[in-house]
Write a structure and sequence with these properties.
Elements (H helix, E strand, L loop, with lengths): L4 H8 L2 H7 L3 E8 L2 E10 L2 E15 L3 E10 L2 E14 L2 E13 L1 H4 L2 H29 L1
Antiparallel strand pairs: 1-2, 2-3, 3-4, 4-5, 5-6
Helix pairs in contact: 2-4
Length: 142
């Protein structure tokens, strides 16, 4: 990404900024340091619903590493996910690498892995495209 790593990392900790980047996010607000309230509208195939839950910050090593966990419930089932973001400084900006895993229970889990994997392949790029666009917009305002 073509912006400085330090201010970008700070934005990754900003609930208002993140809410603009997460597809379907209706609310992301800080409950206390390291704990955010999340309300997300999601669609998996023909099934749509809302998840309510929390985002919990894990290991934070500024400006290079951010680990987080998401726990959420919905009438459709339960979501549990974790992600690890690493920002590697590069000339003219930084590279953002991520790894993560999600587990679903309830009706969502009964849809089967192929549908869920296809949705994840669609959502993750949307998230990072949105993140890159918002970072570029924020960098232009500074």
């Amino acid at each position: 990404m073509a912006c400085a790593r330090e201010p970008a990392f700070a934005l990754l900790l900003d609930p208002e900024f993140l809410a603009r980047c997460i597809p379907g996010c209706e609310e992301l607000s800080e409950l206390e340091p390291g704990r955010l309230n999340l309300r997300l509208r999601a669609a998996l195939g023909p099934i749509q619903g809302h998840f309510s839950g929390q985002v919990l910050l894990g290991e934070v090593v500024e400006p290079e590493l951010l680990q987080l966990r998401v726990e959420g419930d919905s009438p459709l089932g339960r979501l549990s996910a974790h992600a690890r973001l690493r920002l590697e400084e590069r000339p003219g900006g930084f590279r953002l690498d991520y790894e993560g895993e999600a587990q679903l229970a309830g009706m969502l889990a009964s849809l089967g892995a192929p549908i869920l994997e296809a949705q994840a392949r669609q959502r993750v790029p949307q998230l990072f495209e949105s993140l890159a666009a918002e970072l570029a917009r924020e960098a232009g305002q500074r």
